[in-house]
Amino acid sequence: MENEKSSLFDLGIDDVGQSYLLSTAKWNRFLAWLGIIGCSLIILLVVFGSSFFLSRMSPFGRSGFSSGYFTGALIFYVVFIGLFIIPNVYRLNFANKMLMALRTNDQQLLNESLSNLKSFSKFWGILAIIIISLYAIIFIFGLIATAMF
After folding, report:
1. Single pTM value for the model
2. CB of 42 within 8 A of CB of 81?
3. Tens of pLDDT along 11-20?
4. Which of 90, 128, 134, 149 lies deepest, with the highest CB count within 10 Å?
5. Do the Cβ atoms of 32 and 88 come closer than 8 Å?
6. Are the CB atoms for 88 and 116 separated by under 8 Å?
């Protein structure tokens, strides 16, 4: 029984495992940068698009309507961008630390890298639970609304 527990701590990463981790880290770094660039483009689109639209609507006396609309849209985009920036930062930290850990053979960096991967996965798991819960609530309210009519 004692040998089974101690054998877990003897676990190592061989050349095949290192090549898989290297490839995984490179792809995750690429995907993280795509996500960060995408969020940055959305920020630019919201800022410049809203400025352009507000400037076009104010001569027609509709600035009050469009200001309220863009305030709601801005809040939506801030939440949307936050939901995508946070996991991409975890993903980028995972990739960078994994690449450095594999280059320097540093166990501490490997552990930090895997911690970021855990946080990335945990974030998406919690978000999935929240979304499924919202769908369930919407479904229940839909059933109640249908029953009322």
Report:
1. 0.76
2. yes
3. 788 899 999 9
4. 90
5. yes
6. no
